[in-house]
Amino acid sequence: MTSILDCTLRDGGYYTDWDFEKGIVDDYLDTMSQLPMIEYIEIGYRSPAQDKYLGQYFYLPIDTVKYIREKIDHSKKLSIMINTKDCTSIEQLEYLLSDCIGYIDLVRFAVSPANFDHALNLANKTKDMGFEVALNLMYVSQINNGDIKSYIDQIVTGAPRTDYIYLVDSFGACYPEEVKKKVRIALEASNIPIGYHGHDNIQLAFANSIASEEAGAVIIDSTITGMGRGAGNLSTELFCSYISNKKDLVIDYSRLANIVERFTEIKNEYGWGTSLPYMISGLEKLPQGEIMRLLSMKRYNTNSIINLLNEKEEKILPDDEDTFKGIETLDFSNTVLIGGGKEVAHNIEGLLSFAKKTNTAFIHASLKNLDYFMKKDVTNIVCLPGDELNKLGKYYNKDIIYLISDKQPNKVDDNIIKMPNVFILTDEYLPNLNEFTFDPPLLMALKAAFKIQGSSIFLAGFDGYDQETEANKYLREENQQIIDVYNKNFEHKLISLTPTKYNIKVKSIYSLIVHGVING
Amino acid sequence: MTSILDCTLRDGGYYTDWDFEKGIVDDYLDTMSQLPMIEYIEIGYRSPAQDKYLGQYFYLPIDTVKYIREKIDHSKKLSIMINTKDCTSIEQLEYLLSDCIGYIDLVRFAVSPANFDHALNLANKTKDMGFEVALNLMYVSQINNGDIKSYIDQIVTGAPRTDYIYLVDSFGACYPEEVKKKVRIALEASNIPIGYHGHDNIQLAFANSIASEEAGAVIIDSTITGMGRGAGNLSTELFCSYISNKKDLVIDYSRLANIVERFTEIKNEYGWGTSLPYMISGLEKLPQGEIMRLLSMKRYNTNSIINLLNEKEEKILPDDEDTFKGIETLDFSNTVLIGGGKEVAHNIEGLLSFAKKTNTAFIHASLKNLDYFMKKDVTNIVCLPGDELNKLGKYYNKDIIYLISDKQPNKVDDNIIKMPNVFILTDEYLPNLNEFTFDPPLLMALKAAFKIQGSSIFLAGFDGYDQETEANKYLREENQQIIDVYNKNFEHKLISLTPTKYNIKVKSIYSLIVHGVING
């Protein structure tokens, strides 16, 4: 019989930063322990320290592990996952696993083709420590059948004690026939049992799972309500009901319905499941992590994201290369990047007075505080992500300098780009900070500031957030990442002129006015 | 190329009583007319008059049809559906279709095995009138392959001009291999093009649709956001994106995303899509209409419904048959069935006075008004659906007579059933009213009243509803249905003693007190 590895806490954690209330975890464990088709419960990641907040089920303190083991006794086996790319050495692996001996049965490694050899070493060490081991080969939709065989051959040679090889459809992009074929190839190449982990972007998680089963996979991943990264997973309630129906296995539907109801409440808050952008990411075989980030930020509308996904070659530069003009024609001694925070209003007098004294331009990453700077005899440069410039219409102001990015989802009208006060930012303006699909507003402002005057860049109104919500979490992380990478790469560090919760050097605007930029 | 028939207005109408705002319909039509893979837009049902409220897209006034035809011009073909069981004669068909000539291209008939021959006659007449015709063979999960061939053979013989034969997975219960097989059988048996209409109970609508396409189906039904009866359909946005990706057909994703967003707002209100009960109904091959009704009524919790679905043989009668006791031991001249409405409180003095004068028992279909009747020296009989009797605990009252039904989702404890004041209602107590999966409370009360005294049954507190909501819509329809069927089948009609919005004869309680039951 095919059995299930339920990884609700591990894969679902992507939505809650791996925080789950104890009550719901207890109910979940009780329900899982009574479902006959569940063989493993995967309770989270075990991870080295990361530079951001991640909860209990991302790090799994040993007391949590012991509590869960005691609670479910030995009714089920317990599994944890380790991201191969985060676990950089054998010593780190020993550190992560040694206190789990006797409590955890199975250790699974998420393996990408890039870190495959390293994963084999980790698998061998994990076996030496007495655990069962699974190698979860990610991105199988991108790996041709010959390479699948080659990876399996390498596992047979390099880590022959591996207990399970999982084929993971990371992009939710596989079709049933393709899954069958790949599972069969894997089974022909080794005697190691095969598992399958699907995603539901194009609503084929269940169809692909039963296809993998037909082809001989013996263990399949699922999560309650399909809770999981991006479009989510095969739902445990469907697969349990399916096995129950097929094998005439009695299950307690009342308990199952109860836990489904509890996770549905969380689903109503976070909203996993597929949607048009996820469908397209699956059909076009694009990574859903990026989609998830873009959707959560709510900066771009669904259409913009679809446009990006669908128009593989983005082109916003004007057709006529002669009309291209660079921002290096602008000449200022300092730049102050203006965010959307309230501290701008509190310090407006100081900011305006500083600008007038020191040939400083204001570069607005947000439009929120622009009004404070209008008609004040200062230079205002405004960053417009997306196609806002197209929509400006009567709000177009010849006294403002507009910036657009060549990395954005929407094409801007050629005639607008040719206007004398419109400039296009490109990656060349700021090396080392080009990993974003679209340029975030702070990065756009920073690109302009760096090109204009790389040694004196100030920030104002990047206050940070009092309360963390799903939407502002990504914005905060993104801004901090931009600040950190900039400061790491360039000699002159960024300085905030207003109070901020970001990790950044702060100086008082009044100190600069009195003592000058260098000595302020 | 496989083409799409989008039936959002027709199949989605089950959730909105076929009411859609004009603005959203206009947007929908504009979007559909620009998607190259859409061949037909099915704009609703054309139906003979029904005894309940059903909206514009259930009846399709000819002005609506003309408006839509003008709006989409001839960019797409238009389809309507007729329920074969509702269209009882050729004359009725002519009446329904004659004004559609020139505006509608395709007429589809929903056909069950029970009315198959009639459907062939309707199909022939429809062809005579100049329309294209599709026969939509429902419940294919329940029809074995031999019978599929036999139905197709009969179409080839009896209605050879049929333009499409659709295989409809009404229960959302088919698997991809099964769909492939059935489509192939249909194609081998005739040259008539085959279509497929899936439901998403077990999340196989997409997998089954592409399986049908692989087997040779040329037209597939879908709806925006999968809006459709019960667990819903294949979503148009997924299937369009799939075809776009596969055939490199450019589509306007922005428009598609916009209409998806608008229907998602309606989805958030009505909540179609699958859930554990729908999944089980699909896996167990049970009709989802009944599930949808039970869920909407909110009378039974999800667990109760699952229990019913899963325990195929319901057994609530006591193990020891000797302890079974019939309600015929009770002896009253009249019965008054008490509902949950406010008119009970307004008329309480009259009701109590009537009961004391005339040897009348009160049978409470609802517990809402019970308090008004306690300690008043009258006999109170209380109907308890579900397993409320198990939970009564300290509220158990030896002065009350409790009734439970043998058609209910939960087993009641044997020891409780043996109590002298607990009676079990069975179908024998009231013939002709046994089509309900579970006995509704009014039906329970009516069963008891009929057995006690079939000639003098009164109602009080069945007020009806001021505002129609999704939840009370089913309750209202159910109560009216019970009243109608009872009155049709039995000589002594039901009489309401309090004002009511139901269609039922009303007499004043005070008239009965003064003039007696016969002359009152």
From TrEMBL, chains A, B:
<dbReference type="InterPro" id="IPR050073">
    <property type="entry name" value="2-IPM_HCS-like"/>
</dbReference>
<dbReference type="InterPro" id="IPR013785">
    <property type="entry name" value="Aldolase_TIM"/>
</dbReference>
<protein>
    <recommendedName>
        <fullName>Pyruvate carboxyltransferase domain-containing protein</fullName>
    </recommendedName>
</protein>
<dbReference type="GO" id="GO:0003852">
    <property type="term" value="F:2-isopropylmalate synthase activity"/>
</dbReference>
<feature type="domain" description="Pyruvate carboxyltransferase">
    <location>
        <begin position="158"/>
        <end position="257"/>
    </location>
</feature>
<dbReference type="Pfam" id="PF00682">
    <property type="entry name" value="HMGL-like"/>
</dbReference>
<dbReference type="InterPro" id="IPR000891">
    <property type="entry name" value="PYR_CT"/>
</dbReference>
<dbReference type="GO" id="GO:0009098">
    <property type="term" value="P:L-leucine biosynthetic process"/>
</dbReference>
<keyword id="KW-0464">Manganese</keyword>
